[in-house]
Amino acid sequence: MLIQWFPGHMTKAFRLMEKEIKLVDTIIYVLDSRAPFSCVNPKFESLIGGKPIIYVFNKYDLSDKSKVDEWINKYFRKENTRCVTTDSTTSGSGKKLENVIREVLADKINKFKAKGMNTTIRAMVIGVPNCGKSTLINNLCGKSKTVTGNKPGVTKGKQWVKIASGIELLDMPGTLWPAFDNTKVAKHLAYIGSIKEEVLDIPELALEFVKDIREIDKKILEDRFNISVTDDMSNLEVLDSICEARKYLMKGGDIDYDRGCYAIISDFKSGRMGNITLESFSELKKLTVKDRKKENV
Known about the structure:
The protein is an alpha/beta fold and 297 residues long. Helices cover 41% and strands 12% of the residues. It has helices spanning 8-20, 44-48, 65-76, 95-104, 106-114, 133-141, 183-191, 202-217, 219-225, 235-245, 257-269, 284-288, 292-295; strands at 26-32, 53-58, 81-85, 121-126, 159-164, 167-171.
């Protein structure tokens, strides 16, 4: 399925990032732990340059922690990077991020301290839409200082926020990239809510989701919806079973696909299906290969 969404404010956001990047000491790169690789925006690489990166694996409580830990140890933990796991909705869970910011920028802090001076360290917070950036910042502040919402595109402009003595964060709009080279990555971003629902074909997306979850573990669907999934069932038959089990039916007994498909995607986003991470490190090649159709264009 073809998925694209790149509204005008995202172009403005990139230009704003290019302008503001020189004002910050480090980058806080927020990732959704349910799809950590897919949350890495390739356009950010040239923007960040050589600044130290703190990867925040947000929504860790909703993820398959063993998969996330493997991504951290085998892919994200490199020179000049630090990795932090957090659940930004739990009060106080962001405190360890504040400590890591001070550790990463200890040389600058100590340099000014040796001169008897205080300094303010600044970090830019970036990530795809709906990864939890603003909620994380509010958690660090201990109160609501940024606008949040359970949908992409809430933050439209920059917001400077003081989170502690000597630390300021620049909250930037969630930003995707103009075109997805890999359909699997695009689907994962759609599943976690980084792409506006209005531009998606939800029934088609739900059918793809059923297929992908079956490949991870069919018991996820069986346990959540109290159905039996056999190998000879088509993905549509599994979808039908879910809708019938949940009584998503119209008058006359026909399946209400719109209602059922929205409910399936919603159950995943909310964590009601359990702890799931959509991608494994072993799938790295599948996630990085370009779609053949686009290569031939």
